[in-house]
Amino acid sequence: MDTYYHILGLEPGASQAEIKKAYFRMVRQHSPESDPEQFQKIREAYEQLKKGEDAADGPVFPPFSDPWAGKMMEQIDNYRRAGNMEKVRDACEEAWRLFPQDVRFLYLLSIAQRQCGNTGKAVRNGELLVSKEPENKWFLKELAISYLARGFTQKAYFACEKAYEAGCRDNDFLLTYAFECNEYGEYERGKQVLWEMARQDRRWLKEDIPELIEVYSGLVRFCYETQDSCLGEVMEGLCRVMEQYRIYMAEYIQELAELAAFTGRCLGQGIIEYQAVTRAFEVMREICRTEEDKNIVKEAENTFCFSRILDDPRIGETLECAYEIYYELHGVDAQTMKFALTDVQLCMVEERDEILEQAEILRQEYPDFYGKLEDFIKRLQSEKNLSYLKSSLLKTYRRLAGNFSLGFYYEKYPQEKERAQGIVISDGTSEDPYVRTGRKIGRNDPCPCGSGKKYKHCCMKKQG
Is 446 in a helix, a strand, or coil? Predict the structure, then answer.
């Protein structure tokens, strides 16, 4: 049993609420499409560690055919309460052999076999159950889960579909069905299933909050797959539940922040969707209890913004690079940061007209990023100082470039690199004195290029 706790990253004896929370955290990390083998292990561990879940709600059976059958059922219930599924399995098997007219024992036997790892037998008995009552939603659900445990994912999908059409609506099943819809590309049906859960007129308990978050995570994934316009509605719904259950939500800041950050991958250019996501980040900041939580939300917001910028066809490569410098380049020394900023600023000078057009988009839609660029944008807007700005940046860039193997500016504008060849400027780190190889040219001396003009009115001006 400890193995199942280990799979979910739990200590033995964890509560049912902790088991449920761990399960939903793990399936986000190991989804059925990205890691089907591990997903099956996680699902099996969850099924094994659930206690009493199947008995809480299920099919209604007729009275037992014999008083001794009732006595055996009492013993089975005692084993279930004790969590001894092996004894439950063995007792159900004996009861079914003695009382084959009481299908309740077959139903409980199938569940116990699955939870004990006897998935082949669970599938056979599940199929027998369905053959006896083809429209019984609980029998169809049990068969679908047994197929999943056995690894028969295609059969599981169709069994889930039949159980859903028969009226099976418990939340564990609906999430399982949604997972299967995602795996088989039935995104519209999966979205329908999750919307049904999200719109339930009910009060969610504290231990059910992981399920609620998983509902909205699934809806966002389906929006990503279908590229439809319901993302705004999804995020508005998430904002409402975060506000309604804020007393519980503080424990799930990491999961909520990751979910909101992911929306950057499926967000179009719709202003409603963007406003809904930014509102979600605002609510998260209100929920945060610690500085660590606030930092998690801030990092997620940066990731969301960067995803949008990368996918925004109106924003060019240079500003994407600038975003990485301001938001992703952490923990570097001052000289590296200075080189990186000078590198991208020189590219912005070269692409001035395009950058100024894109800056207006940033001002309206990415205000935090625009705020970091605003001072330099204002310098770009002044045409009369543009030559001086470039000259000043080049002087710094040439001084630092020798210390770095990568340079965005020289890569995009190789002619500038060629122009800089042979120019040696001290970086201030050498202990040797600088020695001039020839006489310094005075400002009023004839220009060495032979133009006949004074140096200050010719090449000195060009170099400045």
Answer: strand
**Distance (Å, whole) CA 425 – CA 310:** 37
Contact 26, 5 (CB under 8 A): no
Q: Which residue has the tokens 């509902």?
A: 215
Residue with tokens 């004996």, as numbered in its chain: 94
Contact 7, 39 (CB under 8 A): no
- Interatomic CA distance for residues 59 and 385, integer angstroms: 80
The tens digit of pLDDT for each residue in 110-163 reads 999 998 989 999 999 999 999 999 999 999 999 999 998 898 988 999 999 999
For 176, the token pair is: 């399982």
Matching residue, tokens 């990368």: 310
Q: What amino acid is encoded at 277 in this protein?
A: V
Neighbours of 29 (CB within 10 A): 12
Q: How far apart (Å, rounded) are the C-alpha atoms in residues 332 and 346?
A: 20
pTM: 0.67
Do 55 and 80 contact (CB within 8 A), yes or no? yes
- d(CA 347, CA 409) in angstroms, rounded, equals 6
Q: pLDDT of 358-382, one tens digit each?
A: 999 999 888 888 999 999 999 998 8
CA 408 to chain centre: 30
- Tokens matching residue 314: 């109106």
Tokens representing residue 356 in the block: 């100024």
* CB-based contacts of 269, cutoff 8 Å, min separation 6: 312
Contact partners, residue 14, CB within 8 Å, separation at least 6:
5, 8, 22, 49
CA distance 148 to 46: 13
